[in-house]
Amino acid sequence: MKGHAKSSFHGAHRKILMLTNVEFGEANVFLATSQALLEADPDVELHFATFDGLEKCLARITQTVQRRIPHARPIVLHNIKGSSMTAGVKQHLVRHGIPHRQPCIPDSFTTPLGGFLGSVRALNDTIPIFLPYEGPELADLVSSILDIMDEVDADLVVVNSLMTAGLTACYHRGCRFVSLSPNSLKAAVPRFGYPTFFSGLGYPVPAHLLPLNLCLFVYMVALWWTNGHRRRVAGCLEERGYRLRTTFDLARDTPRGFKLLVSSRHEIDFPVACPSYIRPCGPIVRPTPPIADVDPGLAAWLAGGPTVYVNLGSLFRFLDEEAVALAHGLKIVLDTARKQPGTQLQLQVLWKLKRCQTQDNCPASKQNNCPASQVLDDYIRAGHVRIVDWIQAEPNSILRSGHVACSVHHGGANSFNEAVSAGVPHLVLPQWMDCYDYAEMAKTLGIGRQGNESMKPRWNAPELASQLLATLFGDTGKATRERAKGLARLCEERGPGAVNAARILLSECCGK
């Protein structure tokens, strides 16, 4: 692939290279779209370049498709040589002495924002999210990706919109590429009129807080361009013949004919006017098997009553005091639910709880070892609460079981989109970056609430319980459920996001 002029097919089939970080928060949209591509065109030659960790997922996708379409081509995996984003961020935090909790979350992200200075501290620690490598490491990654691009010689490259090494390689090669983003439309076109990252401000931003929001927005932009780490990395890349490119370049130096496919649509996002190159596809969610096929025991338990599903994402690790506060909030809800008039079934809780590595693990077989489990001991013994550190079934399978009354999550893009697609109400406990956006979107759309408004990103039991009860019961709960189901129907009518994305990508291969 030597430049834009290349557009012919290799024989009778199209060839696409998917290029992404390995972390599920970003990779899920690529996995979902890969399956949709193979199902839409079994003859497509699909290559997937990433770091170690997705081998089994990609093999399962190939097997799933080939069970129905035996002649579908298998996905070809290419390993990028170097450290993953998570490893890079962790190394950066350690190297620069930035306090953090495992696996790679700066303490500033989990400290109550507390106004301008709290937001500034968190913004300062976001640089490694976008640029998690030193100059030589990033240059080697770019070189490895360029080698893969030359080997594959694809008709089209689909690159993660947050993958700095991939974007740098695509711009450097001058190839024909499209970006795929798991995030919101608002994140694709940041403007100071919307809540700035880590501001914790509501939407719409109150008039008296607009100056604060503007200051944070200007600070964020200035921080990026003046940051010493960014300038050192850019200088090192220039010495190797590369120009640093990041997600910000997609808006300020948009390639001709470029498209950014976003895992959202206007009806489930902030009201944003998007440039023509941004294509909302709808929630891009990985298809998963029914819960009964994956874990019959869990499926039977879920059928025992409406369930609150608590999962704060793959990166979050609980401190004991955080888990205990959440447990007390859940206990208030469970106690109150017992007294609700007309209640036929006992409310249940399924909680995926991962504790910080400095504390003992809390496997399902030893729930009573966890302080949080002691708070909920009566309900655990009665079989109404399960606290586990690992669940065999995918979150999407659980949400689509038909038994989840509310999804308590951290505001991650995938968690939000999976719940939206399943028609499940949200209680959001936003933790960092655009998680606050998804909390505001849930409130604005009428499909959920924020459970920690007073002390975000931490929480307290009374506030969490109050917001969860309002999501579950009474007129507000009924309205929330109806609105959530209505948006799920709308998304279904407009077609799965992965299918819509695959259709655009195949069209791009034809040069349309």
Automatic annotation (TrEMBL):
MF-aspect GO terms: hexosyltransferase activity; UDP-glycosyltransferase activity
Residues covered by the Erythromycin biosynthesis protein CIII-like C-terminal domain: 384-450
Keyword vocabulary terms for this entry: Transferase
Entry-linked InterPro entries: EryCIII-like_C (IPR010610), Glycosyltransferase_28 (IPR050426), UDP_glucos_trans (IPR002213)
Cited Pfam families: EryCIII-like_C
PANTHER family in the cross-refs: STEROL 3-BETA-GLUCOSYLTRANSFERASE, STEROL 3-BETA-GLUCOSYLTRANSFERASE UGT80A2
The protein's name in its UniProt record: Erythromycin biosynthesis protein CIII-like C-terminal domain-containing protein
Biological source species: Ophiocordyceps sinensis
